[in-house]
Amino acid sequence: MRILVCGGAGYIGSHACVVLAGLGHRVVVVDNFVNSSPRTLPCLQRIIGAPVEAHRLDLRDRDGLRALLAGSRFDAVMHFAALKAVGESCAQPLDYFDNNIGGTIALLQAMQDTGVRRLVFSSSATVYGEPEQVPVREDAPLSATNPYGRTKLVMEQMIGDLCRADPAFRAASLRYFNPVGAHPSGLIGEDPCGVPNNLMPYLCQVAAGRRERLRVFGGDYPTADGTGVRDYLHVMDLARAHADALDYLVRRERNLVVNLGTGRGTSVLELVRAFERVSGRRIPCEIVARRPGDVATLYADPARARRLLGWRARLGVPRMCRDAWHWQSLHPRGYADADVDAPAFVAGAGQVASGSARNKRVDATPRPPAGPPPPSVGVRTVAQWSSTTTSPRPGR
């Protein structure tokens, strides 16, 4: 199938592209690169072993989206594009509503206009807010406690309304818990812009010497060690779930909502200790005040995903830490350290931009400074880069 991946240069979107391409699908990336790097794309190309088509485009540009979808037959869309920092959403709520909800409205309209009727949507466990009980099932009350979570909830509701209004429209909303880790090659991973908002990249940056200590937000939660408990999920397991959800939509007609998690909670300090064991690095910690919008304990009941998609998480916390550290140790400054040339995008609809991934042999199994190495994977070197740009529009 030919799949439009919105936010395909981002953390989760890029890993989904790898999985989809490995299954024989053709992926086309759309991204505005506000919180992602264009250097992700030639890194993707090295893993996939083929050119990656990409368009620099803001999702709120409905005309640009419509032109892209109409210009080539697409079988499905995967929607990862969003602003995603809980704390930032509390400080800048209107930016989040404008970008996340506005972009989704434009995307759904463009899909309707061009007859593309399969969508896999990146939702979030933040739609549950402070859960009444854990593990959390999909029928739990929805009460997001921060603007980011509320945008995801509204987006889910819009998609559900569209499915009811248009029986031919099929959608899967995947409620992620806490994605971490990286591709085992170490070529792609999580590269936050500025100060990390999530725990694992913060841990990695402390271990790499970029930050002096880890700030732990809240040490007085009603948990075993006083720190927040979350359901950490390897990003490669998460990426697999998207392919499984798409396969489900091909076979079934319904608006699907499922949790994606391991079903096990891990506290902040437990994750820190696991990371220290894998990396061989000590992580100094400082307990600071809770962040607005954070909850004490949140982990999934993933039974529905197992039953309907045949999916379950396979990779545990040690592997999550190992792959995240492998990525960080190879790229201390994130994609700025990637041995590739960033693709050049030029203004003007339909104009072709050129660039190249450096034609240099990639060792797929370099070792992090400490800890057991990840399993090797084959990476082919490809010296061709293909990209286009379509009516870029500034904005988040």
TrEMBL record:
It holds the Pfam family GDP_Man_Dehyd. Residues 383-396 have a biased composition (Polar residues). GO terms for molecular function: UDP-glucose 4-epimerase activity. InterPro entries: NAD(P)-bd_dom, NAD(P)-bd_dom_sf, UDP_G4E. Its EC number is 5.1.3.2. The keyword NAD applies. Residues 366-376 have a biased composition (Pro residues). Keywords: Carbohydrate metabolism, Isomerase, NAD. The keyword NAD applies. One of its GO terms (biological process) is galactose metabolic process. Residues 351-396 are annotated as: Disordered. CDD domains: UDP_G4E_1_SDR_e. PANTHER family: UDP-GLUCOSE 4-EPIMERASE (PTHR43725:SF47). NCBIfam families: galE, PRK10675.1. Homodimer. Belongs to the NAD(P)-dependent epimerase/dehydratase family. This is UDP-glucose 4-epimerase. It comes from Cognatiluteimonas weifangensis.
